[in-house]
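Hello Y.,

Per our agreement to keep a running log of every chain we model this quarter, I'm adding this entry. I've kept the format consistent with earlier entries: sequence first, then predicted structure.
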Amino acid sequence: MSDAFFKTSIKRFISACLPALPGREPISLEKALPWLMPKVRPRFMYEALSLDPGHPGPVFQPVAGIFALSLVLDFPDREMDVGAADLARWDVDFDRLMQKARSNLLARGGEECFQQMGYGRYRSTWEDNLDGSRMLLPGILKRLQLEGDPVVLLPNRDTLLVVGSEDPYGLKWALEAALAFLNEDPSSLNGCPLRLRNYHWEPFHAREEHPVCPLLVQLEQRRLMEEYAHQKTLLDRRHGAAGKAITVAPLRLEQTPAGATASYTAWSPGMGEAWLPVADRLRLGWELGGEPGRVWLPWEKVQERLSHLLEPVGLFPERYRFKAEPPSGLLESLAM
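Predicted structure for the entry above:
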């Protein structure tokens, strides 16, 4: 019998022994507090709800840019998000409830619930859909035997991997494990690593010559490809329902001459209003006097030469639209 099956069986047993839980109708703060838990998920999972009408979604706060933190009521038989209407009805703010949620989370166990997979390599064992939330308990992470700052990866809901920022072999193990989870697990998240520096979470970055840099690039490209693709589907559906002719440009991958993989997107005047993803390169196309032209620009150069024409749409991940069509003289100068 697997540990996961055992834990699920225990949870169902506890659920059967507990008094009846509140239904889906509004419940009081007093009844909600014992079940309150923090939840960490990729930020896009929350942001996507704003693109789907009729789904207000939970209240959330961004964490290290690409993740987000929300509150849930983690009942034994179901999970309920805490939304703005709940906070208003309880007359309490998000931060105050988060303190209680972290206390409830800590009561489920500490560093003893991490399995050591080798020196400086740890994997969570709670398997309660909230494993990633343990990154909110830095005291636990700092008691693990790590080389450098704690680095965490959340490849799925039941897995938190922890290694040290100065342990190249541990980092390689964690990044490869995250990619394996993403390839095999249908409930995968994104696996992009975060670093705890001075009790503040930030994306983990490595120098270009660091041996794990290709793995970091692969995870980030995978995240952006999936998020932009899902975002495009939702935007196309919303624009279609509203009768808006907006081109939501896709993000694509290409093989570079050096054998690496890079992302790109494209724009041409015939696209009309277009919302462009942030890519490694932008392909600009135009036609002057019946002659087609094309130029490839690194995104850094796009920001340098075209920023006065571009404006953010206000999405996550962000997209940009041209406020005005680039003048022909500018396009020609970019091709030189």
